[in-house]
Structures are given as structure tokens and as C-alpha cells.
Specification:
The complex is a heterodimer of chains A (277) and B (398). Chain A has 277 residues and is mainly beta. Chain A has a single domain, classed as Immunoglobulin-like. Chain A has 3 helices and 23 strands. Chain B has 398 residues and is mainly alpha-helical. Chain B folds into 4 domains: 99 residues, no CATH class; 49 residues, no CATH class; 108 residues, Cytochrome Bc1 Complex, Chain D, domain 2 (Orthogonal Bundle); 98 residues, Cytochrome Bc1 Complex, Chain D, domain 2, CATH 1.10.760. Chain B contains 17 helices and 6 strands. In chain B, the strands form 3 sheets. Chain B has a two-stranded antiparallel ribbon with strand order 1-4. In chain B, strands 2-3 form a two-stranded antiparallel ribbon. The longest helix of chain B has 18 residues. Chain B is globular. The termini of chain B are far apart. The chains are: A mainly beta (277), B mainly alpha (398). Chains A and B meet through helix 1, strand 11, strand 12, strand 19 and strand 20 of A and helix 10, helix 13 and strand 5 of B.
């Protein structure tokens, strides 16, 4: 520990803090890639009940591109099925399974002052970049956070200006994409409602729910697992200064755990009903 | 002659009276005389440096903290507290009460240990206003302000900023030993503002308005010559320590080069990307090479720079005239969630205004603030120099 010598007598405090820090497991055993024959499938839907009424964001700047108001993109609910998009579903602590995809390229675009997609999951060692479709100034500001507190702003990872839609794709450094991490993205150019989340993962059993709230994990080695659900939440409390909204304070993410049994060549169905209250 | 007087017991009083008649270049204010400052700082005792001496740190915040409680910034000082010259802040009780409650999304009490940093970005749940530590710091009264003004004005002209000497070649084991020595120096000189735990939360930190003392454990440095996300180069840290930053961070001219390099090794050792005396894989600092200024700041260059300033949206934060008052200026936040104002060029260009430094800044951004890197936005590399020339013109037009 770099700090044990240099910050005595706080060494014990810091060592304990690092080991106990909530978030992605720092000390998890390394994932082993094994051939998976006759693996099972986990399917399900994330729904919300009741569907909460969510206030729109007020747009204080660049309304010709961003429009006068913006629906709260943090909660996207399918009208018919009540399915919730952009929830992350994953197997916690799985130690062996199919290979992590390599050579993955992912791009997050800025369109009409919203990041698209809102939640992105990429395998470690992939290529992740940002583009802009908007003819106005944005900056993509990426911070490292924790699963339980994505907005902890632990580290300022990346901050790139994009003055218009002609700026070439800007990529994160490879060193920031090597290990599991959770990133929070925001814009500082007055577009205070913009937010996005990026998960860098070290095993392939992750899914992001689609617009109908559906997810599927395939080729899971038979066994019993803990399936975890994560949604960044939609509550956004405006922070004001001199009558101007200077930012939003987001609530804690909604999370859920379920025990799931996977059988060879079988399909296990499991849903999550998010509390909408 | 003074030495003789000092040597004879009972002659201190006479010597002090003799000193009281001396004139300095800056008129000494009444409080400085009447409160006994001269007894120690100019009299035969010479327990502390004269106001005009170079080793007197020229930082308003440091001096406020020092006057309030000398031992908070100078361990082992024998100077008495002058906290009677300060008035408690009317909101102090409210701010202390705020520490007991949950700090909205920034730091929990378990993390901040009940200290002032938690107040940095506490946001009222109703969105009323931001309370910062400076909102509740003790306020200097008239006498304290007069003493502070005198100390700041009596400063000798600062030495010219020179390029740092080459860092000593050290093995990782030597760096760790140097870091331990640096830790000792740090506790003596730096911990007053930067905190014993190197978290930017020393006893003097609450006197800071706006920008706080740097918390080194995050590994974020604003003033560096390396690529975005990279750690600072050793020379960057040497330059900041030796010459200060012209604002709250004073110069430390009386530290020897070896001592400054020991402090640099200590700061590197605290950096999250540094381990066992060396940088982690792929985390070596990479300097941004911009070369020398290729052409001077002609009118054509400044005009082109003005067009780029508009095209790049710089005015959104910095304002059309570079006063830091653009439409997005009020929304900028730093890494602690605190509101950060864009630079106001009318106050000068902090850290140096030469064109190569400005171009490096455009390409690097300022880590820990909303100022992004504009890498990828310059279709023509010469545009970066035109923009630098325009910014220099804005700063000169005060």
C-alpha cells in the first residue's frame, strides 16, 4: 500500500476503507474463460409499477438544438408493457464461463443534448468513444464512481470538448478501460440535465434491458447464481443558484438481487418489478 | 550594534524602542505596532521573519490562518494566537449543525470525519443556496485586515520564474526514501492548508474562497504540462512549489532544491497512479509537446483567434470579453461538486501567459474543473496559436 508508510498513523484507516469500499469488487477472483457446452439462458423483464409521474427537465440554453423542455430520459418506460429500459442485469461474482468478447467498439453520441445510449456496458479492453450530432458546444466529462454511488466523482477520468458535430470521435484512454469500473458522464456547457453511465466489465454475463425492459443472458454454465439488477434512478433534484438551475442531484441507484438456478439447455425466467413510488 | 544590545540583559527594551523608530518602505500600520508584532518580527528577538523578508509566505489565506492560530500552519511556532482580531461568522452555528446531517451526495460523515470539507458543496434539499466553508470562516476585523494588507504589500519583488532544474535521477527505493523526507517537510510547511491527511483540508482551508487547497490523494492537478488524465511531471510540481501560483499558494523560496525534489517525490507517492516508487503501467506522465511559438501575435492572428473563440464556444463559460461570466459560467462544478468559476482573464493569466503554455492548456484541459481538452477540435494546428494570441489580448485589455 503506497499509503501505509506515508500517511501514518492513518494507514489502518485507509487500508480498511479501500477493502471495504462499496462498488465493484476489487478483490474478486479473476474470471476464467472455459468452454461452455449446453449452457442455460436467463431471461426476464424489468418493469415498474406504478409508473411514476416524472417532471421534465427545463432547458436553459441552446433551445434551438435541445428544445424548450426535455423529458426525463433517465426513466424510459414502455407504454404498454411497463417495461423499463437501460437497466443493467448481471450475474454477481461468476468465476468461470464463456469468453469475454474482444475487439468491441462502442460509441456514445450526443444528440439533441442527450447522450445516446444512456447506459452502456462494455467488456474490458474495448474501444469506447464519443461523437456529437449537435452543432453546439458540448463537453464530455467522465468521472469514475461506484455501483452504489455512481456520482461519487472518485476520479476525473476524461474531459473532452466537442465544439460541433464535425469533431472526430474522441476515445477514452486504453488504461481506463482495462479494469472493471463504473463511469458517470455529464456535460459542463450549461446542459445540466445530460447524464450517462458506462460499465466496464470483466465477464460477459451482463445485459442492458431494451426499450421493452427485456434482457437475456445466454450460455450460462449450469448452477446457482445471484442475479443483480441496477437502475440509475430518475429522481433529479435541481440545485439552484440565483434563480438558475446549476445542476441536478441524483438519488441512489435502485438495485435488486435474486437467486437464480440455471439448468443445462434450460431457460430460467426472472423478472424485477421496480418500486415506482 | 543590535547584537550588542541583544546580548546585554535588560537592554531589550531600549533596543525595541530604537527599532520602533525605524522606517520601512511600506508604512507600518498602527495594529502592527501596538499589538506587539514588531517585538518579534522586527525587534531584537527576531523570533519571526520581518514582513519584508522573502520567507514570509505571501498568501492571503495562509496569513489569515496564521494570524488566527499560528500553530495551525506553523507547527512549533511560539507566536500567540490573535483570534481576538476575528469575529465569528454569524452562520457558524448553522454550518456546524449541517455537519451533523447528511451531506447530499458528496461525502458522508464517515468519509469526511466531521470536518470542513463536507461543507464545500452542501446543497440545501430545497435548492436554496450553497454553503461553503468560507461562508462560515471567522472574519478578520479591521486590525487583522490592516496587518494582512501590510504583510502582503511589504513583500519583496518575487524572483523571475525559471525553468526547473532537471530532476535528480533516483531509483524507486531512493524515491520512497525521499518521499519519507518529503513527508516531514510536508507536515512542517504544507499541512496547514493541504491537511495532515493530504486531503486539502488543513486548518487554514476554511479561509479559502472558491478554489480550495489541493487534495493530493485524488491525484488531480490543474497546472501541469502533461496530457489529459496523466499525472503531473516532476518539473510541474517543482515549479508550483518553488514559485507558487500567484494566489493562495505562495512561493517557498527558502526551500533548497533537494528539499523541493523530496516534496515532489512525496506528492508522486501519494498519487493513485504511483506505486512502490514508480508509475504504474501505462501511467507515466507524457508531456504535451507544442514547440516554440511559430509566429508572433499579429493583428491578423488575433482577429482569427477572436473568430475561433466564438466558434469553439469559449464564450459560453468565459464570456465574450473573457470575464468568466458566460451563460454556462454559473453551472460549472469541480470534482467535489463545488461550483467553479471560469477564469476571468481581466485578473491576469494565472500560472503564466506565454503562448506555448496557453496552447498546452487548450490541449490538456484543466483537470478537476469543467475546462475540457480541445484536442480534436483544431482542424489546423496553427489555430491553437491564433486562439492563444486572442486570449493574451483579452488579458492585456484590463
Amino acid at each position: 500500500m503506497r499509503k501505509t508508510i506515508l500517511l501514518l498513523p492513518f494507514a489502518a484507516l485507509l487500508a480498511g476503507a479501500v477493502a471495504a469500499a462499496p462498488g465493484l469488487p476489487l478483490l474478486a477472483p479473476k474470471y476464467k474463460e472455459i468452454p461452455v457446452a449446453g449452457g442455460g439462458t436467463i431471461q426476464g423483464v424489468v418493469k415498474i409499477d406504478p409508473v411514476p409521474a416524472v417532471a421534465e427537465f427545463a432547458v436553459g440554453k441552446d433551445q434551438q438544438t435541445c428544445h424548450a423542455t426535455k423529458p426525463n430520459h433517465r426513466l424510459s418506460v414502455d407504454g404498454e408493457t411497463k417495461g423499463v429500459g437501460s437497466a443493467v442485469v448481471y450475474l454477481e461474482g461468476i468465476e468461470a464461463g464463456k469468453a469475454l468478447p474482444s475487439g468491441v467498439t462502442a460509441t456514445i453520441d450526443q444528440k439533441e443534448c442527450v447522450y445516446s445510449p444512456f447506459v452502456t456496458v462494455v467488456p474490458a479492453k474495448s474501444d469506447l468513444g464519443f461523437t456529437s450530432s449537435d452543432p453546439i458546444l458540448h463537453n464530455v466529462h467522465v468521472f469514475e464512481g461506484d455501483v452504489d454511488n455512481p456520482h461519487s466523482l472518485k476520479r476525473d477520468v476524461f474531459n473532452s470538448a466537442m465544439k460541433d458535430n464535425k469533431v472526430p470521435r474522441q476515445t477514452l484512454e486504453a488504461r481506463d478501460l482495462r479494469k472493471p469500473a463504473l463511469f458517470f458522464v455529464r456535460c459542463d456547457a450549461g446542459h445540466v440535465w445530460m447524464s450517462a453511465y458506462i460499465w466496464v466489465v470483466d465477464h460477459p454475463y451482463y445485459a442492458v434491458t431494451d426499450s421493452k425492459g427485456a434482457f437475456e443472458l445466454k450460455d450460462v454454465p449450469p448452477g446457482r447464481y445471484t442475479l443483480r439488477f441496477w437502475h440509475p434512478g430518475w429522481t433529479a433534484t435541481p440545485q439552484e443558484s440565483d434563480g438558475q438551475v446549476t445542476g441536478y442531484s441524483y438519488g441512489a441507484p435502485l438495485q435488486h438481487s435474486a437467486s437464480v438456478d440455471v439448468t443445462a439447455n434450460g431457460t430460467t425466467k426472472i423478472d424485477w418489478a421496480m418500486p415506482g413510488g | 550594534m543590535r547584537g550588542v544590545w541583544r546580548a546585554l540583559p535588560g537592554c531589550f527594551l531600549l533596543a525595541t524602542i530604537a527599532h520602533a523608530r525605524e522606517e520601512t518602505a511600506v508604512p507600518v500600520p498602527e495594529p502592527y505596532r501596538m499589538l506587539g508584532c514588531r517585538e518579534c518580527h522586527a525587534g531584537p528577538w527576531r523570533a519571526g521573519p520581518e514582513a519584508a523578508a522573502p520567507q514570509f509566505p505571501r498568501s492571503r489565506e495562509w496569513n489569515l490562518a496564521h494570524l488566527f492560530d499560528p500553530r495551525s500552519v506553523l507547527p512549533g511556532s511560539i507566536m500567540p494566537r490573535y483570534d481576538a482580531l476575528f469575529e465569528p461568522h454569524p452562520r457558524e452555528a448553522e454550518v456546524r449543525a449541517a455537519l451533523e446531517g447528511d451531506v447530499d451526495g458528496i461525502l458522508t460523515r464517515a468519509e469526511h470525519g466531521g470536518d470542513w470539507r463536507a461543507l464545500l458543496a452542501r446543497l440545501d434539499a430545497d435548492g436554496d443556496e450553497v454553503i461553503t466553508a468560507a461562508d462560515a470562516a471567522p472574519r478578520p476585523g479591521a486590525a487583522a485586515k490592516a496587518i494582512l494588507a501590510y504583510v502582503m504589500q511589504a513583500a519583496p519583488p518575487p524572483p523571475a520564474v525559471a525553468s526547473p532544474p532537471p530532476p535528480p535521477a533516483r531509483s524507486p527505493a531512493e524515491r520512497l526514501e525521499a518521499a519519507k523526507r518529503g513527508r516531514g517537510l510536508y507536515l512542517l510547511h504544507c499541512a496547514g492548508c493541504h491537511g495532515e491527511r493530504a486531503d486539502g483540508n488543513g486548518p487554514a482551508a476554511r479561509f479559502f474562497r472558491g478554489v480550495r487547497p489541493r487534495g493530493f490523494l485524488r491525484g488531480e492537478y490543474r497546472f501541469k504540462s502533461t496530457r489529459p488524465g496523466d499525472p503531473p511531471a516532476a518539473g510541474d510540481l517543482f515549479r508550483t512549489i518553488r514559485h507558487g501560483l500567484g494566489a493562495a499558494m505562495p512561493a517557498w523560496p527558502t526551500l533548497g532544491d533537494g528539499q523541493v525534489w523530496d516534496l515532489v517525490d512525496y506528492l508522486h507517492a501519494l498519487h493513485p497512479l504511483h506505486e512502490e516508487g514508480r508509475w504504474k503501467e501505462e501511467c507515466e506522465p507524457r508531456p504535451i509537446e507544442v514547440g516554440a511559438e511559430p509566429f508572433p501575435a499579429s493583428e491578423a492572428s488575433v482577429t482569427r483567434g477572436a473568430a475561433l473563440f466564438r466558434e469553439f464556444g469559449c464564450g459560453e463559460c468565459h464570456g465574450a470579453a473573457g470575464r468568466g461570466d458566460g451563460p454556462a459560467a454559473a453551472t460549472g462544478r469541480g470534482s467535489y461538486g463545488e461550483l467553479v468559476r471560469p477564469a476571468d482573464y481581466s485578473k491576469g493569466l494565472r500560472g503564466g501567459g506565454d503562448a506555448p503554455r496557453l496552447v498546452r492548456l487548450f490541449l490538456a484541459g484543466v483537470q478537476g474543473t469543467p475546462m475540457p481538452s480541445y484536442r480534436g477540435n483544431f482542424a489546423d494546428p496553427a489555430d491553437a496559436w491564433h486562439l492563444a494570441h486572442f486570449v493574451q489580448r483579452q488579458a492585456a485589455a484590463r
